[in-house]
Amino acid sequence: MQKLAILTGGGDCPGLNAVIRGVTRKALLAGYEVIGFRNGWAGVIKGDWIPLDRSRVAGILHLGGTILGSSRTNPTEEQLTDIQNNLQKLGVTALIAIGGDDTLSVASRLHKRGVPVIGCPKTIDNDIAGTDQTFGFDTAVNIATEAIDRLHTTAEAHSRVLVVEIMGRQAGWITLYAGIAGGADVVLLPEFPMTLTDICKIIKGRQASGKNFSIVAVAEGFKLEGEDVTTQTKELDAFGHVRLGGIAERLCKLIEKETGIESRSVVLGHVQRGGTPTAYDRYLGTRYGVKAVELAQAGQFGQMVSLKGTDVVGVPIDSLVKEVVDKKTGKPKLRLGNRSVSADLYEIAKIFFG
Ligand code: F6P
Q1: Backbone angle region of 232, left / alpha / beta, with phi > 0 → left and psi within -120 to 50 → alpha
Q2: For burial by CB atoms within 10 Å, which of 128, 150, 175, 263 has the most?
Q3: From the first residue on, what is the mean pLDDT of each consecutive set of 10 residues in the chain (354 residues)?
């Protein structure tokens, strides 16, 4: 009997359990034995796994988080060898790695070593190259939109500026969608730095036209023109990322000083990753899971499942990888490319500024 293994790596994300269920149910039908490694790549390094059968994946479709646990483990070259050995010892004939650009960069390194791996693009940030959408994004957008809807009440009642900080790392996708859907008066994205003067001009313009409040939707990775990103700590994580956070508070103080209007900040944080996934994320996650098993059955390893229009297809991970400088070591490394918000999409948000 062929054995298929699953792991979930990186930040948790709504819809992970839908993928685990989709993979398991399809793989069982296809005659595979299925196992799940616990806590991302850490579980494969340690050989920490659980069997997955129909009963283990029952009743999980609507749950946030991941029944397998996750971690931001970035294996060293030696640990990649441990992974290869463990997979061989366990008789794993296909490994499905569900994760964002970090987890999938590791999948690509393993593929180069001949490991039969397939990637599945997960992240609320929606910033993975090679797919029209990642699962988890839709839920995060809905949560952020609801938050903006709710903030309108207080902003209007107290004649305040409310600055809401939204996740997404260096990509503004969640902020763009939620900003448009929630009717934010200013939308600030990492891809398009702006000056404080221009931001305050919009807010003062609203005031001059009789609007007593403003909602500013700001992506955590937004930079004021000429400045760097705002971070919570200077430390880099295992994949060389800074921990973003604090831009809303910073902007809030600056806006209040410049406009004289009482301003408050709200950070949505991990609320955006938690709770029940939307129907769309469960649907997309299920389709990704089923397609990943179909690719394994066809022996098409080294592929990432991807949404192209309304089709779910396989895309070679190698075609998505590019060389970058590792911020931790200063050495070149291969990592999955990112997808940014385009200028023409941002133009749509700008129509509604003010
Ligand atoms: O990549 C998903 C994400 O939620 C980002 O939007 C955010 O910057 C980051 O993860 C936060 O990571 P952590 O949960 O490790 O603080």
Answers
A1: alpha
A2: 175
A3: 96 97 98 98 98 98 98 96 98 98 95 97 97 98 98 97 98 98 98 98 97 97 96 88 96 98 98 97 98 98 98 96 85 90 98 97
Distance 19 CA to ligand 1 centre (A): 20
Residue 82 annotated in active site:
no
Residue among 230, 218, 224, 234 at smallest CA distance from 198: 224
Active-site pick, 102, 125, 127, 281 = 125
Say how many Å lie between the CA of residue 168 and the centre of ligand 1: 7
Alpha-helical segments (H) within 159-269:
173-182, 196-208, 247-259
- What residues line ligand 1, using a CB cutoff of 6 Å? 11, 100, 123-125, 167-169, 220, 243-244, 273
The ligand 1 atom at the shortest distance from the C-alpha of residue 100 is 1
Helix, strand, coil distribution of the chain in percent, nearest 5: 40, 25, 35
Q: How many A from CA of 26 to the centre of ligand 1?
A: 30
Domain ranges (residues) in the chain: 3-136+277-319, 140-273+342-351
Position 49, amino acid: W
* CATH code for the part of the protein at 140-273+342-351: 3.40.50.460
Q: How many angstroms from the chain centroid is the CA of residue 320?
A: 17
User: How is domain 3-136+277-319 classified at the CATH fold level?
Assistant: Rossmann fold (3.40.50)
